[in-house]
Design a protein that fits this description.
Blueprint lengths: L3 H8 L6 H13 L6 E4 L8 H8 L8 E5 L8 H6 L16 H4 L4 E5 L6 H13 L1 E3 L6 E3 L3 E6 L3 H6 L5 H7 L2 E4 L7 H19 L5 E2 L1 H9 L5 H15 L4 E2 L1 H7 L15 H41 L6 H11 L12 H10 L35 H15 L4 H8 L3 H10 L5
Parallel strand pairs: 1-6, 1-7, 2-3, 3-6, 8-9
Antiparallel strand pairs: 4-5
Helix pairs in contact: 2-3, 6-8, 9-10, 9-11, 10-12, 16-17, 17-18
């Protein structure tokens, strides 16, 4: 059995943190066996090194080693990728294809992001783990395979099981041995070592001088949370190697790249599904109220403008049709019974609370003297009915009266087709 330091040198692993050493020791110990291994850890901590060590120290090291990113394969094709398919099994299956479990027979398969597997594929995988048998997509023939499975995930598996996103029996089958990779924020003593290793590598790669950290910069890195772990540190060093002219990096310069108080996206937990939906509904209803009230105010403004135009024109210039239209606009509608939860009920209650209601004066045909014409008072205090059906009916009547019953011109005025107008006339019994 290889010792720990030789494994670190062989696979380029930097660090002496006890939790990291324990993870590597467990990988070396289980390597000679065929036990299934589940690697747990955050994204970017280096989980991919564990299956490499297990495969390299096992008796399968001369057999295929295949890495499968379960989260990157579409749900519709993952069964075909893993287990293969027969010709004609689905649209586009023009030839027979071998899956990863058939190609890697005798070797090792690393299932990265195994928590993203669909439930149907999880059933197939469970059968492979229990009996070593699988069937191609579109085939009824059972095939045997001798494959060791090492899985890794950054998903909280117990939560995924509770949410019915992962099978509990598959979890315990994969988790025969669990190896936990520590986050970089817990390996404070290893951060400077990793920085120096990356700085040397990228300086050689890009043929540039090596980056060096000041004491305050080292302290800044050790206190930084590194949500992206080792991957984030590596990308940081590569970026600074290429961009920075000054090869000595202090904490001020680091703060420009990785601010300590960075505002990262936060996941807000929902208290309950019903509460969230009711809140959304309430906000939408408020928006609807506002739109309708704005429309009411616009109508009142139009009525005010109409009043001024009537006064400026005089009584003699008004036709009988215009007078009828004025009567219809300014005559209050009778109160309607409405549901207490409806908008109409809300408006009517507001009307009842008004102390004074001003009714317009109807212009008489008999009196031609403009001085005897009373001013038309605008019913600003009384909100109009917000019933869309009533407003639509009134608009149709007004258009028909304006065009003296000619339905084609009324339809053009309303901006609808003649067929729609005929249907509306029949609906509101306006055929007389």
């Amino acid at each position: 059995m290889a010792d720990l330091q030789s494994i670190k040198t062989r696979f380029g692993i930097i660090g002496n943190f006890p939790a990291l050493n324990r993870a590597l020791e467990k990988a070396i110990q289980v390597a000679p066996t065929d036990i299934s291994v589940l690697v747990m850890g955050e994204s970017g901590v280096g989980k991919e090194f564990i299956p490499k060590i297990i495969h390299g120290e096992s008796k399968r090291k001369h057999q295929p080693y295949i890495v499968v990113n379960c989260g990157a394969i579409p749900e519709g094709t993952i069964d075909s990728e893993l287990f293969g398919h027969e010709k004609g099994a689905f649209t586009g299956a023009t030839t027979t294809r071998k899956g990863y479990f058939e190609v890697a027979d005798g070797g090792t398969i690393f299932l990265d992001e195994v928590g993203e597997l669909p439930l149907q594929t999880q059933v197939r995988l469970l059968r492979v783990l229990e009996s070593g048998e699988f069937m191609k997509v579109g085939s009824s023939q059972v095939q045997k395979t001798n494959v060791r499975i090492v899985a890794a995930t950054n998903v909280n598996m117990m939560k995924a099981i509770g949410d019915n996103r992962f099978r509990e029996d598959l979890y315990y089958r994969l988790n025969t041995v669990q190896i936990d990779m520590p986050a970089l924020r817990d390996r404070k003593g290893d951060i400077h070592l990793l920085f120096r290793k990356f700085a040397i590598d990228f300086a050689e790669k890009y043929r540039m001088p090596e980056l060096k950290l000041t004491d305050d910069a080292v302290s800044y890195l050790e206190n930084y949370a590194f949500p992206g772990n080792v991957r984030q540190l590596r990308n940081l060093v590569e970026q600074m190697t290429v961009v920075e002219q000054n090869r000595e990096v202090n904490s001020t310069k680091l703060a420009e790249y990785i601010p300590m108080n960075a505002n990262l996206p936060t996941v807000i937990s929902k208290t309950s599904g019903s509460g969230s939906s009711s809140s959304d509904f309430g906000s939408e209803r408020e928006i609807m109220y506002k739109v309708l009230f704005d429309m009411r105010n616009d109508i009142n403004d139009l009525k005010s403008l109409t009043s001024e135009l009537i006064k400026s024109r005089g009584n003699a210039d008004l036709s009988s049709q215009e007078k009828n239209l004025i009567n219809r606009i300014y005559t209050p509608e009778p109160a309607q019974n409405a549901n207490p939860s409806s908008l109409l009920y809300f408006e009517n209650n507001n009307n009842n609370q008004q102390n004074q209601i001003h009714h317009p004066t109807i212009i008489s045909e008999d009196n031609e003297d403009y001085n005897d014409v009373e001013d038309i008072e605008i019913e600003e205090a009384r909100p109009e009915s917000l019933s869309l059906q009533n407003n639509e009916k009134d608009l149709i009547i007004k258009a028909l009266e304006k065009h003296k019953g000619r339905r084609n011109k009324a339809a053009d005025e309303l901006g609808i087709s003649q067929r729609t107008l005929y249907r509306k006339i029949k609906q509101y019994n306006l055929e007389e």
